[in-house]
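Standup notes
- DV: blocked on the single-chain target, sequence here:
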Amino acid sequence: MESILLELKRYLGELYIPKIQIIDVIEILILAVLLYYFIVWIKSTRAYTLLKGLLVIALFVILAALLQMSTILWLLKNFATVAMTAIVIIFQPELRKALEQLGQKNMFASIIPFDSSREDGERFSDKTINEIVRAVFDMSEVKTGALIVIELNILLTEYVNTGILLDSIITSQLLLNIFEHNTPLHDGAVIIRGDRVVAATCYLPLSDSTVVSKRLGTRHRAALGISEVSDSFTIVVSEETGRVSYAFGGKLITALSPSELREQLHKIQKDRMEEKKTVKFRIWKGRDKNEKSVDE
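- DV (later): unblocked, structure below
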């Protein structure tokens, strides 16, 4: 036992422990805050999916290094410069958006998830659900084509900017007027954020999926396309058949009834409210612990 203690003391004595100053602590805190904000920001963009793919590649590289796979390591070393350039190109839209927000001095307001005012604005109510369902099936009866995108966690600002800004409270009459034939706003998609129509005539990316039936038109491909690059919930009314469909998570579900659509909207609403409560609980739990430690 004494020999073990002596060996441990000798080992600890050889360790180099740098002198930590106040400026070092401040620097660590700044880096930690910046890293946290970066993770929160990237989680609300399409880059989050790409980042997960890069993490898988990074784990593969670590595995190759541990197992001394010389050929793979040589290839990675020679393609490192090309890979860095490719990463910049892939993340170019997100990096440009971040720099624009930083220049407008509203970056922190848009990425802090527990901001109470933003939290209340993003949650859609039962009244909004009823207005959407009523408008959708009123349009379905007269075969008026419609494309309604409900924004969830991933912000759709780049698609909002392609349309005409409205920022109006959602009503069935407003949606009916927007998609009425021969009106200036009927072409394109409506994007909803919380209880408000943010913009109309927005352009969405079309899906390249070969699984989609050839009988489905551009609206359905656009709905599927936006669901593939974001977590949005998109409702489609067919102009030819009047059928109501929705796209979510890269899947297209057709021929919905009013009760089925209402059920899906309530499910999304419930899931989002539970996420908000979980985040809020964690934040207040941390505050409560801090307050108790101060009192003690």
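- Follow-up: Residues 104-121, 289-296 have pLDDT under 50 and may be disordered.
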